[in-house]
Design a protein that fits this description.
Helices cover about 25% and strands about 25% of the residues. By secondary structure, the protein is α+β, with helices and mostly antiparallel strands. A 7-stranded antiparallel β-sheet has the order 2-7-6-5-8-11-10, sandwiched between helices. Strands 1-9 form a two-stranded antiparallel ribbon. The protein has a two-stranded antiparallel sheet with strand order 3-4. A hairpin with a 6-residue loop joins strand 5 and strand 6. The longest helix is centred in the last third of the chain and has 22 residues.
């Protein structure tokens, strides 16, 4: 067995200022507020959660609902790190939330960045060419042409500005977010499946100075009657 030691994360004695990655952006799509209807009990969702590998088309309202409940920013406050800290549904080391979500929808070559503080999608004009190989790779793992692709992109500099040896914290943040998203999908009656691939080497090509790195991929779609554990 090979085990990669990622070190022991510890808060730095002096925090470092970090300049956030600046995205090249295009069109902006505002998403509607999530539905406020009755929701299933948490313990019921925990018992019912299953990974589904069958996907139907996902409507804009369903996608907005999913992001609203699983991913949006609930509160922000200033910090000495050079960027705001946030409260979201998923926990994050130091309330830093270094994981970005970039999505590709069926029939649309474009990739979109989800902005949790404004609950909107922002087009990434250069991503369609840079991530075309990732789409092909994803479909080799699980061919789901009607699924929406969710790429998890870490911005490690955010976490490293506060923590020494913080790599394992980033992977734990990714896992926590995946767990919350899986439960949200179950509660909303959607199909959700994390894939084992990271998104590399394509994901990091989105940033010329390698400020971004792929840390996971997942598929999301409308519910299908066929599901597996």
């Amino acid at each position: 067995m090979t085990w990669i030691d990622l070190g022991n994360p510890f808060p730095r004695e002096e925090w470092e200022q970090y300049d956030l990655f600046q995205w090249e952006t295009g069109q902006v799509q505002r998403l509607p507020v999530g539905s406020l209807g009755a929701s299933p009990a948490l313990f019921d969702v925990l018992q019912q959660r299953r990974t589904s590998r069958q996907f139907g088309p996902l409507g804009d309202a369903e996608l907005a609902d999913f992001f609203w409940h699983a991913c949006r920013s609930l509160e922000t406050w200033p910090s000495d790190l050079g960027f705001e800290l946030e409260h979201r549904s998923a926990p994050s080391a130091g309330a830093i939330h270094p994981i970005h979500l970039v999505i590709n929808r069926p029939g649309d070559a474009r990739w979109w960045l989800y902005e949790p503080r404004g609950h909107l999608l922002i087009e990434l004009p250069s991503a369609s060419g840079l991530l075309s190989g990732l789409l092909a790779h994803s479909r080799e793992v699980l061919d789901a042409p009607e699924a929406t692709e969710l790429l998890f992109l870490a911005e490690p500099g955010k976490t490293m500005s506060k923590y020494a040896d913080g790599c394992s914290l980033i992977w734990r943040d990714t896992g926590a977010l995946l767990g919350v998203m899986a439960l949200a999908a179950q509660g909303l009656g959607l199909s959700f499946c994390p894939l084992g691939i990271t998104g590399e080497p394509w994901a990091s090509s989105l940033a010329k100075q390698r400020q971004l790195v792929g840390v996971g991929l997942a598929l999301l779609g409308s519910a299908s009657p066929t599901a597996s554990r």
